## 1
Amino acid sequence: MKALVLRGHGDTSMLELTDVPTPEISDPGDVRIALRAGALNHLDLLTMEGFPGLKLDFPHILGGDGAGVVESVGGEVTALRPGDRVLFNPGISCYRCEQCLAGEHSLCLEYRLVGEHLPGTMAEYIVLPHQNVAIVPTPPDPHPPISWAEAAGYSLATLTAWRMLNTRARLQPGEVVLIWGIGGGVSSVALSIAKVLGAFVIVTSSSEEKLAIAGDMGADVMLNHTELDVAREVRNVTHKRGADVVVDNVGEATWEHSLRALGKGGRLVTCGGTTGPMVVSDVRRIFWNQYTIMGSTMGNANEYAQIIALLEEGKLRTRVDSTFPLERGVEAVERLRDGRQMGKIVVEVRGEK
Ligand code: ZN
C-alpha cells in the first residue's frame, strides 16, 4: 500500500511517499480499515523531529487521526462489519490491566498512540483493536452529513480538549476560561467545547484573522497576545476576578502569564508546550491563590463515547482548515509546521478495494 513515511527523525525532507506492506489482522479483536482520510496533529511534528525516549522502526508511517471504511474484521469482532463508515480513538491500551478495567485507558502502562509509537494514518490501510473504532454518526436535520475530512480530524483533538475541560478542569456554566493560541486543533475545539459547557470564553492569537474566526465560533473576548498584556486584559474583563480555568498548551512562552491570569482557586490545565517544556512557576502565587495545576492527555473509552454522542447530536463539528491529497502530504506537514492553520489539516487517502 501507499504511505507517507518518515525515513528517520528530522525535518520534512525525511518524509517520503512510498510502498510499504499492507498491515494484516493479527488479533481476533482487530479491524482493518481502508482509510479515506487522515488528519495531522502537533504530535506529528514532535514524532517527525524525535524526542528523548521515542524509538521508532523506520520507515514509520506518520499521522494520528483518520477515518475510513471497515474492510475486514477478526473472528471475535461482532459490533463492526465490512462496509461500516468509521472513525477511531488513536490511543491504544491493553484493555486488561487494572487501569483499563477501571475505565482509565489513557493511564494504562502500555498506552500507545497511532502515528507516534504505532503505524499512522497517512496510508491506505490501518489495523486497530475494535474497542477503539466507532461508527461515523449521522447528526439530525438540518445538520449536513459528516464528511470524511471532518470525521478524520475529529478524534484526537476533541478527545484531548474534552478530557481537559470536562473531566479534569470540571468547567462549569458561567465560568471564565482563557484559551491560548486559538489556531491549533486542540485550542479551537476547546473553544467549541467550552461554549457547549456554557462558559464565558476568552481566546488569544497573534493573527487578527484567526481571532475574527474565533468570534464567529462563539468566543466572547478575543485578545491579540502580541499587542496586549493578556493577564491584565483578563482581569479587566472579569472585574479583577481573573479566569477560573486556563488552557495552556503553549508552555514556556505563556506559562507565567497563565498563572497571572488565573483568579483565586483557579485551575490551569495543560496537554503540551509548543514553545518549550521547561516552564517557571512562582510557588508563592500557586499556594496563596490556591491554584490547581493539572496535566491531561487524550482520554478514556467513556470520554470517547461522550464526544461521539456530541458529534451525533450536532453539538460539535470538526473545523477543517485545509485538505491535501496523499501525494501532497509533505505540503500538509509543512502547513502544520508553519502554524498557518485554523482547525484541522487533512490528508485525503484513496484506499483500494
Ligand atoms: Zn491497560
Note: The mean pLDDT is 96.
## 2
Amino acid sequence: MSTEPIKVAEIFGENVFNDTVMQERLPKKIYKNLKKTIEEGKELDLETADVIAHEMKEWAIEKGATHYTHWFLPLTGVTAEKHDSFISAPQPSGKVLMSFSGKELIKGEPDASSFPSGGLRATFEARGYTMWDCTSPAFVRQDAAGAILCIPTAFCSYTGEALDQKTPLLRSMEAINGQALRLLKLFGNTTSRKVTPSVGAEQEYFLVDADKFLQRKDLIYTGRTLFGAMPPKGQEMDDHYFGTIRQRIASFMKDVNEELWKVGVTAKTQHNEVAPAQHELAPIYAEANIAVDHNQIIMQTLKRVACQHGMKCLLHEKPFKGVNGSGKHNNWSLTTDDGINMLDPGKTPHENIQFLLVLTCILKAVNRHADLLRESAADPGNDHRLGANEAPPAIISVFLGEQLEDVIEQLISTGEATHSLKGGHLETNVRTLPEFTKDATDRNRTSPFAFTGNKFEFRMVGSRDSVAEANIVLNTIVAEAFAEACEVLEKAEDFQKAVHDLIKEYAIENQRIIFNGDGYSQAWVEEAKRRGLPNIRSMVEAIPALVSDKAVGLFEKFGVFTKAELESRAEISYENYSKAINIEARTMIDMARKQFLPAIIKYTKTLADTVNAVKQAGADANVQEETLSEITVLLKDARAALMELEKVTAEVSEMPDGQEKAQQYYHVVHPAMDALRDPVDQLEMIVDKEAWPMPSYGDLIFEV
Ligand code: ADP
Ligand code: MG
C-alpha cells in the first residue's frame, strides 16, 4: 500500500484539456472562437476545429495517449466508446505520423444500428453521428489500455434524432436558460447572460470481495443477488453509517479520489452508508451536462479501481434483499453566469419575491409533471426501492421545511388578492423571509424532492442510472412554468401586484404536492391518494407518462424531444425492462437447476445416511429425520416453483417486444421469481453451510 501523500492541488485536472491548457496552447483567435462556441452556442468552423484538434492531440500524446474516443451515453445506460489510434497510413519511409483532424474531433460515425433506437432506426437511416460537446472538456484516461483521449459527445441519428441522453439534456439546458433569463429580466436583471442548471449527484455503492463475487452467478449476470437469506445481523445497529472506514476500503477510496482528481472530477465527500458494505461519494456540483458526464466517470472509476483492489463495486439499486439499496441524490439549482443562485432565498424582499415566484413555479412544475419525474427515475433495479418501504416512496411530493411551508401557508390564507397588496399582508409575509438561513430547515430523508436551503434534492434516481433523464425533466418542466409566468407578467400593467397574485395563485393551486411528514408511512400513501397524487409503483407503470399528450406537448414546445423520440424512448424502456427481468429469471433458473437443487439433493443423501447410521448405532435419530423431512418439503416447493418459472419465462419471452411483454414480465415472471427465491432462502437457513454452493449474505457484506 502506498503511503505517498497525494498532492491534490498539483494533480487536480492534470489530465483535462481545460481552460488553462486551451489558453496556453491555442492561438488567441482560435481560443476566442472556441469560447464563443462554449459560452454562446456559436457554431464551430472546421478551420478552428482543425487547430484545436491538432493541439489537443499534441497535448494528449504528451500525456501518453495513443488513442482517442468519442465518449457518449447511448440509451443502454452505460457509456459507449470506440477507440481509434492517432496513427495515419505509413509514410514511404515506413514510419507513421500521428494525426487527428478537426473533422475527427467534432464528428464520429459509430454504427447506430447496434445501439437501442426504439423504432427510430426503422423509420430513419441506420447511420448515427457522435458530435463533440465542447462544453464538457476532453480528458485523458489512464487504465490498462494505456492512455486514451476521451472526447465527450452527443449521439444522434442521421436525421438528427437524439439516440442518447446528452442531446436532450443540452436541449433542456437551452430551454431553461431562455426562460430563466426571461424571468430574471422581469425583475430588472440586466447583467446575467446565461442561466445554467447546477447539479451535484451523490453516488451510493456497495463493495464486495471479488473472489466471493465470482462465486455468484447472480452478481455476475445481473449485478444483484437473486437468492440469499439475511444474516443474523443486518443494518439494525446503525453502526455502519458514518462509521470508521476500514483500511481496505480507505485505500480503495484514496485511489478513487486520485484518479478522479486527475481527470478533473471534484470528488469531495466520502463516507460509509447505512447498509454494511455500502458507501457514498459526492462531488462538488457542476453545470448539469458536466455533472452528468462526471457521474459516469465516477461510476466507471469506482468499478475499475475496485478490481485493482480485489473487490467488485456493485452499483445496482438493490444488491441485497433486506438491507438498504443504493440511490443517487440529484441536487439541482439554477445559477447565472454572474453567480446568482435563483434558488437562494436571498436577503432583501425584492430578491425574496423573485425567489417566491421561482419556488412556486417549481411547485407548479412538479405538481403538474409528477408522473414524468417519477418516470425519469424508473429503471428495473429501482422497482425494488421506490415504494417498497424504502426511501423514497413512489409518490412524488415536495418537502419545503417548516419556514417555507409557513410562508406558503400565510400566502394562501392571508394574501387575500388585491387587499393584501394594499394592506401589506404580503409585505409582512415577505419580511419573514430574511430569517432564512441555510440550516433553518430540518432534514427529511423520506422526501423524494426536498428543498435543502438553496437547492432541491431529487432523491429518487437509481444508483446505476444516469442522472441525465432526471435533469432533462427538471429543466424542461421548470422552463415551462417560467414561460407561463412570464407570459402573464410581461403583459401586466402593475407588475408588483401581478407577481403577488401569481405567487398566491400558484401556491394555492399546487399545495397538494407539499408534504413535510414521514414519506415512508402508510398514512401518507392514503393521504396522497385523497390528494389525488399519482402513486406509480413500478417501471412498467411509469413509462406511459413519457408519451402522454401532456408530455409530448411539453417536450415539443421546448424542442427537447419530438413525439417520435419520446415514443422511441418508451419502446426502449419497455425493452430494457423485459431484457433485465428475462436475464434475472434465466439466471435464477440456472442457479436453481445447476447449483441449489443438486447441492440440496446431495445434502439430503448425507442426512439420510446419517439417519441410518444413527439408527444402526441404536440411538434416537428423530432430529436428523425431522430435518430431512423439513428439507424435503422445501425442496419440493423449490422444484415446483422452478418448473413454474421456467414455464412462464419461456412463454413471456416468446411475446413480441413492447408494453404488453414488459407488463407480463412484471405481473407474471416477477412473482414467479419470488416464489422460487422463498423456499431456497429458507433452505439456506437449514442446510449445512459447508454444503451451500456459494457465499452467503454474511460472507458478502460483513467480510469485505
Ligand atoms: P447536503 O448535506 O444538503 O446533502 P452537501 O453540501 O453535502 O449538501 O451537498 C450535497 C451535494 O449537493 C454535493 O454534490 C454538493 O456539491 C451539491 N450542491 C451543493 N450546493 C448546490 C447547489 N446550489 N446546486 C446544486 N448542487 C449543490
Ligand atoms: Mg444529501
Note: The domain at 576-702 is CATH 1.20.120.1560 (Four Helix Bundle (Hemerythrin (Met), subunit A)).
## 3
Amino acid sequence: MTNRKIRTVSKVVRGVTTTDGAGVNLKRILGSPELNYLDPFLLLDEFYSENPDDYIAGFPSHPHRGFETVTYLLHGKFRHKDSKGNEGLLTPGSVQWMTAGRGIIHSEMPEMEEGLLWGFQLWVNLPAKLKMVEPNYQAIPSEKIPEVEQDGIMVRIISGEFAGQKGPAQAQFPIIFFDVHLSSKSKFIYPMPQEMNTFCYVYEGSAEFGAGNEIHRGMTGEMLVLENGENIFVTATDIGVKFLFLAGTRLEEPISRGGPFVMNTSGEVRQAFLDYQNGELDK
Ligand code: CO
C-alpha cells in the first residue's frame, strides 16, 4: 500500500435543518445549496428526534420518478406502502431500497407514538437509460445484512463487498453502502476505485480521515467528501466513531430536478408532473 495514494478530504458538509413530508423535522446533509449533489448521490437526510411532534405526521402519499430512494433505520419503526402493492415495516437496522424508475407513489409513516426515531434517507440517481425502468422494492431486514467484525472494527455491508462478504441490496449500478463502527483508535482501510465518488457521514463520535500530512478530523454531523486516491484510511479518535460509507460510479449526465422527480431535462420533469396529474405516473 506504500505506492497507493490515500484519499483526502476535499469538502466538509454540515447540512441544514429543514422540514419535509407533512412537516417532519430533519437535517438535509446532501441536496441543499451547501452541496447540491455528489454524482450519483442526489440527497442525504438524517432524521433524529425523540419528540413525536417532529415526526408523527410522517411522509404521506407522494410520487417519485427517475432515481432510487434508500432508507436505513437505526431506531424506531416506519411503515411503507406504495402504488405497486408493496407494503413493509422498517425496523431498527433494516434497509428499504426502492427503485422509483418510471414512477411510484408511496407513503412512509412512523409506526410509533413515542421514543426515538433515527435514520437516513439517501437518493441515488439513475442513468438516462434506466430512469424509466419498472419500479422495484427491496425490503432488507436487519438480520440479512452481513456484519464483519475484526480488530476493533465492525462493518455492516448493505451494498458492495467487504472482506469477501457481499451486501444483500441489488443496486442498478455499482454502489457501495456500509455502516462502519470503529472502537477507540481502530482503523478502517478500504481500496477504492478511482471512478467512484466517495463520502462518509459521521453520525456518532469522531475520526481522522486520510493519513500523513493530510489528515482531517471529522466530527459528528459532518459529511466528508474523499477524493484523489486509491485507498480510504480512517482512524477513530479515543471515543470511537460510527459513520456511513457511500461510494458510487459517476453518471456524468445532466440533472434536472423538480421536487420528487429527477430527470435529465426540464421537459422530462414537466412530463413527470403532467403524468402525475393525469394519474399516469405509475401506470
Ligand atoms: Co419518498
Note: The pocket of cobalt (II) ion is lined by residues 59, 62, 64, 69, 106, 108 (CB under 6 Å).
## 4
Amino acid sequence: MNEKVKEIAEGIRSMEIRGAGHIARAAATALIYFAESFMGGRDEFLAELEKVKEYILSTRPTAVSLRNALYYVINRMQGETLEEMRKSIIANAEEFIENSQKAVELIGKYGAGRIPHGATVMTHCNSTAALQCIIEAHRQGKEIEVINTETRPWFQGHITARTLAKEGIPVTMIVDSAVRYFMRDVDIVVVGADTIASNGAVINKIGTSQMALAAHEARVPFIVCAESYKFSPETVIGKLVKIEERDPREIADPKEFPDVKIRNPVFDATPPEYVDAIVTEIGVISPYLAYEVIKEVMNLGVKGEENRH
Ligand code: RI2
C-alpha cells in the first residue's frame, strides 16, 4: 500500500490526526495520494481502491465523517478508463476538502449568531466547528469568555485553551468533573460532534452527555456544531453508532492497578431532548430534523451500504 496512505491512516488510528472534520479531510487526502501514485491496470485500481477504503475505515469506528468522506469521493467516481477514474477520484477528494472547509466557515457564522454579547460559553474537547463559532462571535466584538474542560485522557482541552487564549479570548480551563460546579456561571454551551444519528442523538467526546445533562438542569442552551457529513445514513436503517473504546493505558498503567479493570470509551451519546440546536452549514436545525439532513443534503441515500455500489 502507498506509504503516504499508510502514514495518514496510522496517523488517524493513533490520533496524531484527530477531530472528526480533520480525519475526514485526511481520508480524502489519502485517496488523492493513492490515485496520484497508483501504478497498474484499471481492474487493479478498483481492487486496490477498495482495500484502501477498508484500511482507512478500520482506523476509527465512531466518527461517521470518515466513512462519509470516503463514500463521497468513491461513490461519485466517474469514467471508464484508468486515467478518467484517477482524475475523478482526485477531483472528488479536492471537492470534499474544499466543501468541508467552507462548511466550517458557514457554521462559524451561523453559530456565532447564537452566542449573546457578554456571554460565558462552555465547551468540551477540541472541536474546530465549535471553536469557529466562539472565535467568530469574539471577532464580531461580543465580549465573551470561555470555560473549557481539559478533556481526559487525551487532554484535547489543552489545544482549545491555547487556541482561545491566542485569539485574546478570556478562557478558564477546568477538570471534566467540575462541569456542573461551573454551569451556574454559563450562558450557553457550544460543542462539536463526531456523528449525528437519524433520531438527532449526538455522539461526541466522552463527557459531552454529562455536560448536556448539567446544562439541561440549569436551563442553559446546549448547541452542537456539526457539518452535514457528520450525519449518519446508516442509523436510518437501524444501525447503531459504534462507541470506540481505546487502550486503557491512555488512562493509567494497569501494572500500577493490579486486579483493577480500566475502561476507556472515548465517545458518548447525548439524546436529542438535551440538544437545543444543531448548527450545520445548511442552517441551524432542531435535532429532530436530522433525518431531513441525511435525506436531502447527504445525498448518500437513506439505504446505507445497500445504496452504494
Ligand atoms: P471537529 C473530536 O474527537 C471531538 O469529539 C470533537 O468534538 C469532534 O471530534 C469534532 O471535532 P477526537 O478526534 O470536527 O478528539 O469539530 O476523538 O474538529
Note: Residues 18-22, 125, 127-130, 156, 192-194, 204-205, 266 surround 1,5-di-O-phosphono-alpha-D-ribofuranose (CB under 6 Å).
